[in-house]
């Protein structure tokens, strides 16, 4: 019998993303469920206070897995991590925190980073000598098993959901001064523009009943939905097709969306700032055409084969095996 890889997962005990009660459960399902399901690894969880002494891990573990590479959701201080001689893998933090997070590379002796960003995007933010792998996680397939039929869904509206930018002039001025590259309006530019259209139904991130594990239920109400993130693709790009929606997907040179592997008009409909209205109208004016359901079915098949948490764990294990 092959020996299991012993993994110590370190995170702060008050990390809201790992409680199962946050509006966004994508991280919870990956770390707290999918990792435990894989028979190649033996998971041990260390919910900490503000300080954690890593010396207790010495000789007992093969890999240290950190929730993040900055203090949010983590202990402020990890003592003696340099003494244990165990490789450290970490999920790279949000882009807005990358500048501060870099200092934890040496402090926490990090060997490898992962996230669903493309490599080019990661290296815009981090030094070239940092090791990084793109891993598509966040899709808990059990939540998408029994979906409603495409034919019975709303077809005269297109769903748009999630965070958007603030279009007020004063907000735009402030954002361009304080955070000219990574502000919400730039990151969600096309998603925000879509809300100006009368045939787009918008649901906010928080002010609705479809939070936590209920997001797939919202998606299943609609035949089509929008996945638009203008700086780099987000988890919506695989959540929406998993729910059986025809996915209008922002894929551009700027957001490097081609790295996901979707094919225009085969398993998604690609949109950009110039053509999105035309693409929406093409669907709305011929919504009963069976080709839309076929594209939606192919999108669902593609993500459930390539973007699930269990698939992501397999990719993470490959990194572990490189390091031990």
Overview of this protein structure:
- The strands form 4 sheets. A 6-stranded parallel beta sheet has the order 2-1-4-6-7-8, covered by helices on one side. It has a 3-stranded parallel beta sheet with strand order 11-12-13, with helices on both faces.
- The chain folds into 2 domains: 5-140 and 308-323, Rossmann fold (3-Layer(aba) Sandwich), CATH 3.40.50; 142-306, Glycogen Phosphorylase B (Rossmann fold), CATH 3.40.50.2000.
- It is of the alpha/beta class.
- The protein has helices at residues 26-37, 98-101, 104-107, 119-125, 169-178, 184-187, 189-194, 215-219, 236-242, 276-284, 290-306, 309-323; strands spanning 5-12, 41-48, 51-53, 63-66, 77-79, 88-91, 112-115, 132-134, 158-161, 200-203, 224-227, 246-250, 269-271.
- β7, α4 (119-125) and β8 form a beta-alpha-beta unit.
- It is elongated and about 65 Å long.
Summarize the structure.
With 324 residues, this protein is of the alpha/beta class. It has helices at 26-37, 98-101, 104-107, 119-125, 169-178, 184-187, 189-194, 215-219, 236-242, 276-284, 290-306, 309-323, and strands at 5-12, 41-48, 51-53, 63-66, 77-79, 88-91, 112-115, 132-134, 158-161, 200-203, 224-227, 246-250, 269-271. It folds into two domains: 5-140 and 308-323, Rossmann fold, CATH 3.40.50; 142-306, Glycogen Phosphorylase B (Rossmann fold, 3-Layer(aba) Sandwich), CATH 3.40.50.
Give keywords:
alpha/beta, Rossmann fold, 2 domains, 18% strand
* CATH C-level name of the largest domain: Alpha Beta
What is the N-to-C order of secondary-structure elements (H for helix, E for strand)?
EHEEEEEHHEHEEHHHEHEHEEHHH
Structural class: alpha/beta
- Strand order, biggest sheet? 2-1-4-6-7-8
Biggest sheet record: 6 strands, parallel
Unreliable stretches (pLDDT < 50, length at least 5) are none
Number of domains: 2
């Amino acid at each position: 019998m092959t020996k299991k890889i012993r993994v110590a997962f370190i995170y702060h005990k008050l990390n809201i993303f790992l409680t199962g009660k946050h509006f966004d459960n994508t991280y919870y399902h990956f770390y707290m469920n999918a990792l435990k399901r894989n028979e190649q690894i033996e998971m041990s969880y260390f919910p900490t206070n503000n300080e954690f002494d890593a010396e207790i891990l010495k000789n007992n573990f093969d890999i240290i897995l950190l929730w993040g590479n900055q203090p949010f959701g983590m202990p402020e201080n990890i003592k003696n991590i340099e003494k244990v001689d165990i490789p450290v893998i970490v999920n790279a933090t949000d882009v807005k925190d990358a500048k501060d997070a870099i200092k934890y590379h040496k402090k926490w002796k990090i060997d490898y980073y992962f996230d669903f960003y493309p490599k080019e995007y990661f290296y815009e933010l981090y030094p070239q000598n940092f090791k990084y792998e793109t891993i598509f996680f966040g899709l808990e397939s059990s939540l998408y098993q029994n979906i409603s039929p495409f034919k019975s869904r709303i077809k005269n509206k297109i769903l748009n959901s999630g965070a958007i930018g603030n279009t007020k002039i004063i907000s735009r001025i402030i954002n361009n001064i304080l955070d000219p590259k990574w502000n919400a309006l730039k990151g969600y530019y096309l998603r925000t523009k879509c809300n100006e259209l009368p045939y787009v139904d918008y649901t906010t991130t928080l002010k609705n009943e479809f939070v936590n594990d209920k997001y797939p239920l919202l998606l299943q109400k609609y035949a089509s939905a929008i996945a638009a993130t203008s700086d780099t693709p987000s988890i919506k790009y695989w959540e929406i097709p998993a729910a059986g929606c025809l996915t209008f997907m922002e894929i551009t040179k700027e957001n490097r969306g081609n790295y996901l592997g979707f094919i225009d008009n085969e398993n998604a409909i690609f949109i950009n700032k110039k053509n999105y209205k035309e693409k929406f109208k093409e669907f709305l004016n011929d919504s009963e055409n069976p080709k839309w359901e076929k594209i939606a079915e192919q999108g669902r098949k593609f993500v459930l084969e390539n973007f699930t948490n269990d698939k992501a764990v397999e990719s993470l294990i490959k990194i572990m095996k490189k390091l031990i």
